[in-house]
Fold this protein.
Amino acid sequence: MSDTGKGPRSGSKLVAHVTKADRRQFLIGSAGLLGAAALGIGTGLGTRPARAQGRAEISFASAAFFGKETFGDLIKTFNESQDRVLVKNIELPPPSSSTEVYQGLVQQLARRNGTPDVFSQDVIWIAGFASAGWALPLDEYFPADKRDAYFSGTLSACTYDGKLTALPWFMDSGMFYYRKDVLEKHGGKVPETWADMATIAAAAQKGGDVDFGYLWQGKQAEVLVCDAVEIITSNNGSILAPDGKSSLINKKEAVEAIQFLHDTINTTKISPQDVLSWDEEPSRQPFTSGKAMFMRNWSYVYPIAQDPKASQVVDKVGVAPLPSFPGGKSSACLGGYQLGVNANSKQREAAIELLTWLSSPETQHRIALNFGLAPTRPALFQDEKIKTEQPFMASLEKVFTGATARPITPEYAKVTLALQSGISKALVSGKVQEEMDALATQIDGIVG
Amino acid sequence: MRWRPRSTASSADPMSAAVSSSASGWPRRRSKLLPAALWPLILLTPAIVSLASVSFYPIVNGFYLSFTNTSLITQEQEFTGFSNFLRLWSDAQFWNAWWHTMWFTFASTVLETVIGLGMALILCEAFKGRGLVRAAMLVPWAMPTVVTSKMFGWLFDGQHGIINYILLHAGLIDQNVNWYGSPDTAMTTIIIADVWKTTPFMALLLLTGLQTVPTSLLEAARMDGAKAWTTFWHIRLPLLMPTLLIAGLFRALDAFRVFDLVYVLTGGGPADSTETLSTLSYKVLFSTLEFGYGSAVSTAMFVTELAIAVAFCLYLMRQIRRAR
């Protein structure tokens, strides 16, 4: 107990897969933070006494994202757009402190007093909140025909035990970055299988075009689980069985996939030893300084790669879905925040109204333009305004189609710690089957 | 004569003297209401209450939690006896972290004591600019650990780190070493960072200890023809022993709690090779929100620290007794 609460207040890497773009925007926008906070207070408190009569009062809690505006501004618009519901905005820490956001939400939801009525949640918390009975099943409000408008990967991440317990809001996913100019020299075709990728990467490395063939993230952290989910799923494997009660990580498909990652360092040598201690940023730097051919990373890298002040590879970078194994399908680890309704909310109808508004095409459109967060509705990627203002985002539709959720289990927090440790051991020692067997036993003990 | 005892009491105890002199009309009435012996206790109450609420209560509550299955996620909170500790006993990750923490504590304390002693001996001598050197020496210690961590992250960086650059050009290694990415080197690198940061603290403590060694003894030894080494071994070191042990105890207890360096540099990886008890309990407590089991990890930490402290204190007492 001696160190309880002594941990740094900064965000934990454990559950911090959220887009780095938000972090960047947070930094950029931090100057405007005070003003924005003042605005938030204005919306939350100032307007209430004047117009509270006859309106259902509910609260909305979310991690604080920053862009050209804040979520407080969104809520203000909602409050002004109608006279039935009045929403109070509860601002949680930024997504970079996602452990703190998680704790804050858990503490409030566990009180079961209905506050907050509506909240946003990281995809990996959905199952936990649902199994604790804190998230209201949304099936009756959003029947199957209304759900078709969302990416299927996001919907499955929002579903627990056959019930839709969250509504898709905005998303990010892992993607495959490549150097257009170097690829021209080596056939010009974006590799679709891991083997092709390794061959081209090795050739580019040998030819002296780049120092590193392929960069990924092997640090013992949440991002390692993301990398693993992608490569295992692209070999038709899975971490958990479909019922979520046992592990499949020691099956042939998963072992082959992890073996491939190990080989990139030790056999094909297309990745430096350093990836074992790299998370997103350390792997991004060599890529944007022109030293690497391919890289797996999130969408935040693209704006940096196009920024002449930070990048040596402006206009030389392309993005594609990640490769797969023969017979498998490309897979991209899903991230982002989704919406939920408190099961104990006393103002259920009002909560659903806010939820519907927040996830509507109009609001998602506004979030895409003003926050740079990608919509969960494929149709919006065809939107002309998004295409002109966020051309990169518009090109991501293909990548997001393969979005795959991380293991859906209420015990995710324990499962991810086990995965991080077990996969790291396998990558370091090379005894993949042995470590995966031990890991499977451990995970079976957690979820079984 | 009846007044004698009272007046001696108030003159012997400055605090009650101050109290009774502050309001000349009050003492008599007050002494009827409350016995004088109670006053110190009453005056101490604010301090006791505030200390108990921020220090004693959390410890007791942590102990209690470690015997329950409290979890914020499952919303359970039942007394489960020793089951957390039985689980701990067979938890390979816990023992892995325990050994790493012990190794870190041992290695960093020994290195810091030895190097710190050397620094203290140099700084004890009179030379030009000594004040400046003493002040400069404290810079690493004054730096926030997170800054130190980031700095060592860059120094030992696998691609651009200056350590790799120097070693490579000196011909000591034939290719870049990924210090934080290999289980063989990650812990050593963290220990080096800790030694760099905390040695000045040890040097400072030992310097004050050295300054209490009477110069007359040293002069006498010199006149008897003792060389520097003999003086150190037979006069300075024995007299420094209590300071050395207390400084070592401080350092060991502090090193045992190592968190920031590991958290920033490796997050416990690769392959759990730098996981320590602090980072493990943080993960269990705040990522999985299993407060019961997490408290059991912290309690185990507490017990280990207690054992270290007791061992040091027993040795210290024996030293002091032998000196007498």
User: Anything to note?
Assistant: Residues 24 and 300 of chain A are 9 Å apart (CA to CA). Residues 412-429 of chain A form the longest helix (18 residues).
